Amino acid sequence: MLLRRLWTLLPVSALLAVTAACGGDEFDSGDPGDKTITVYSGRSESLVKPALEKFEQQSGITVKVRYGTTAQMAAQIEEEGDKSPADVFFAQDAGALGQVAKRGLFAKLPADVLGKVPAVYQSRAGEWVGVTGRSRVLAYNESMVPKDDLPASVFELTGPQWRGKVGVAPTNGSFQAFVTALRVQHGDAKAKEFLTGLKANDAQIRESNIQIVQEVNDGKLATGLVNHYYVYEQAKEKGITADKMTAKLHFFPNGDTGALVNVAGVGLLSKAAEDPDAKALIDFLLGGEGQTYFAEETFEYPLIAGVPTAPGLPALDSLAAPQIDLNDLDTLDATVSMITEAGLA
């Protein structure tokens, strides 16, 4: 089963925690008129809880949230099927949303929701929609890697000059989506060659993007493949601006897969198709206040017009992202198997 395959990548403690959570009745669907909705969040609590609390305060709607990795939550929804208590799935990447959509578990979103976001950042069938944009980058320590030595392509990172110098987080949803993009853009054989090359080149495996950026900034790692906003978040925690960090961002040029722009997005479960409270949450996330929160507090790219990006970030439309249809990133199970077979997890 997909759930079993995905969970083989998780620490035992995480697996036990999720299993325990799934056993209780905390997330019973309840009365549809009680102004309570249930969200399965593949995004971390620290990132999304403040936004959900703002929504609760403004709407009077109670939001129950089950947190886990995006892979966990997608697999849980698939296992539960039409009996899932979830009303909304808030995922870290388009691939997981697409995989749930393929199982026929999402309702089509209303036209007024889809109309807020550019078509490139939503499902072709209207079953999920991006909330924010997130660019893949190479974080690097400016004292350890001269700018002139930065790679033009992510494929260069399997070369001898990068041996033991590249941090990766193979169990992270954003890394898995990046590998799926490699498969889509270059084929499975090339993607597998890249993964086995990373392993052979002593890639430094870490639990999270946060850990990678911390180690890059502290000089314990030279580089790491992460999402762009982690450097900004850690700068904020330190009370400095991102330009004062030793960890810098390298955006790969020329449409390289390493510059993938993915989305964090939402899907509406079929049982909540007519639930105005669930739709109200999606409207909030795609409204000015929700978009401003993610731009200013989590340093992601807003997807609706008129909301500025965080100071210092290059404009979303200036990035040399690969021309990959996010709808094609829906083969997460095959990607997870490939990462495991390469010995990275």
Brief descriptors of the model:
2 domains, globular, ten-stranded mixed beta sheet, D-Maltodextrin-Binding Protein, domain 2, 39% helix, 345 residues
Task: Please explain how this structure is put together.
GO terms for molecular function: metal ion binding. This is Iron ABC transporter substrate-binding protein. One of its GO terms (biological process) is iron ion transport. By secondary structure, the protein is of the alpha/beta class. The protein has two domains: 2-133 and 262-313, D-Maltodextrin-Binding Protein, domain 2 (3-Layer(aba) Sandwich), CATH 3.40.190.10; 134-260 and 336-341, D-Maltodextrin-Binding Protein, domain 2. It has 13 helices and ten strands. The chain has helices at 2-7, 12-23, 45-59, 70-80, 94-102, 111-114, 173-186, 188-200, 209-218, 229-238, 276-285, 288-297, 332-341; strands spanning 36-41, 62-67, 88-91, 128-141, 166-168, 204-205, 223-227, 247-250, 261-268, 301-302. Helix 4 (70-80) runs parallel beside helix 5 (94-102), helix 7 packs across helix 8 (188-200) and helix 7 packs across helix 13 (332-341). It is globular. Residues 1-30 have low confidence and may be disordered.
